[in-house]
Amino acid sequence: MEAVLAITLGIMMASGVYLLLRARIFPVVMGLTLISYAVNLFIFSMGRLATGVPAVIGRSAEYGDPLPQALVLTAIVIGFAMTAFIVVLSLRGLGELRTDHVDGREPRE
Amino acid sequence: MNHALILPILLPLFVGSLLLLTHKQALPFKRLVSLLATWLLVPLALWLLLQANTGTLFVYQLGDWLPPFGIILLLDRLSALMLLVTAVLASFAVLYASRGDDERGPNFHALFQFQLAGINGAFLTGDLFNLFVFFEILLISSYALLLHGNGAKRVQAGIHYVVLNLLGSALFLVGVSMLYGLTGTLNMADLAIRVGAAESADAPLLAAAGYLLLVVFALKGAILPLYFWLPRAYASATAPVAALFAIMTKLGLYAIVRVFTLIYGSEAGTLNNMVLDWLWPLSMLTLAAGVLGALAARNLQILLSYLVVVSVGTLLAGVALGTEQGLSAALYYLLHSTLVTGGLFLLADLIARQRGEMASDLASAPALRQPLMLGALFFAGAISVAGLPPFSGFLGKVMLLQAVSPGSGASLLWSVVLIGGLGMVIALSRAGSLVFWRSSEAAVVAVPADSLRMLATFGLLLGSVLLVIAAQPIQAYVQATAAQLFDLGPYLQIIQGAGA
Predict the structure, then answer these.
(1) Across-strand partners of B439?
(2) For strand B72-75 and strand B58-61, is the pairing parallel, antiparallel, or unpaired?
(3) pTM for this one?
(4) Which of A80, A82, B233, B428 is most buried by its number of CB atoms within 10 A?
(5) What domain range includes position B96?
(6) Would you call A32 and B180 a contact, using CB atoms and an 8 Å cutoff?
């Protein structure tokens, strides 16, 4: 399970970075979203991967760590707000700059 | 328990919310509330500073959960000092903004207060994840403040700033969660214990997490490969916002000092002081790059932004020395550079307002309405920021140059800092002579500067003089701060005391 998760995270992160480097605002937003998903999954996995174990110490020998879930919840909320902000910002940028390039002007050919 | 510890966060948070609720009220009301709340932070921070100066660490347990299980706020000499300098800077910035810059959007003051809440929180927290949360609070308000008012230039710089910081936040989360996964804690003091006691097999991963955090803080602090966002962002912000942003790069440096003296400090076993070797060359390169940028700048605000980069490099050099003397010199320089660059950003705006369409571009423009007054202020500010006597920049640099022990490090530091100082003098004197002496024939149309704006600018620049007059107690304080930071015993006691 660990290997699958690690590979998934790697692919998501790599795709995110690739999209980020496209330097057009829509791929950039998509890239940032992918990166934040990958990061959220990474935080989640830091509580170690286990299924069907209680989140309470003492009920069984194994227990799930509830703290990463709290952390990931915070990270999701913040990431959501930030994505909303950058979407609005890029719409305004599109309106004011008349281009979707992140530098605000078309690159020279 | 000392509940005053959380007030620097709660006060701006509540006032900001109040301002949001009453956003339909007239502007004078919002100004009054915002001004009073910001000014109230100054005596509060001063009182906390006096408390912290007794040498005790004040711990505030949120929800009365014992550390390391609950989140703690931690007040030591360093955080008290940062709170005070933030409060002073913000007081003048908000005064300046209240003379018209806050009219460009309805929620300027609310955003300003939220930004203060985030900054104060980041300085006070003793928990790494909480530091991330406060970083995000101050960042999202800073995005909105940066874009405050319209203009294509602002949007252009804003997109870079936002995208870079979002990526930084993602890296921050990876670093923090790696640390959590390896040690099972997020409390900084507890992390210090666990990192010190970690098995050697975990050391590379712990180091990787530490370096990730360094990248994030270097991005916030605008250290060499990661400073390119800064000049345009700062130059396109409105003056009071740019002045407040003078503390934001210092926040990155604060985080570097906090994390890499405490968690990866002298108690960290094989990882002790692992970043110092990196910080040293980076600080020199940042300083040099900042000076080159300042020399090439064709706009007064861009020039000042590069001076921020120079100050980051100088500060980082003090931190990278890894000694009490170096750190205390860096802290003194931090006080100086925050106040003076803040004041210079305000002054540049006053100058730009009197130059008609040329604004702050470094080319000939109609003569200023008040050349003598603004010129004198610019002269004083420029001397101070370039590090010439008799102002505080000089003292800061002398302290730094004395802190380095003789050897190859010393010759490098001395030459970079002194040549950098010369470069700054050249850049500033070129800018000054262009602005004040080479005026075009066009008639002077500008109105004289607003007296309260002038007062705010003057107040911040006066900070440089006060830092010299009160140099002895301030130096004693920063030395005590550095000593406290390197003596990890009391910090680690926070956890052990609670566990016993």
Answers:
(1) B365
(2) antiparallel
(3) 0.92
(4) B233
(5) 1-274+488-500
(6) no
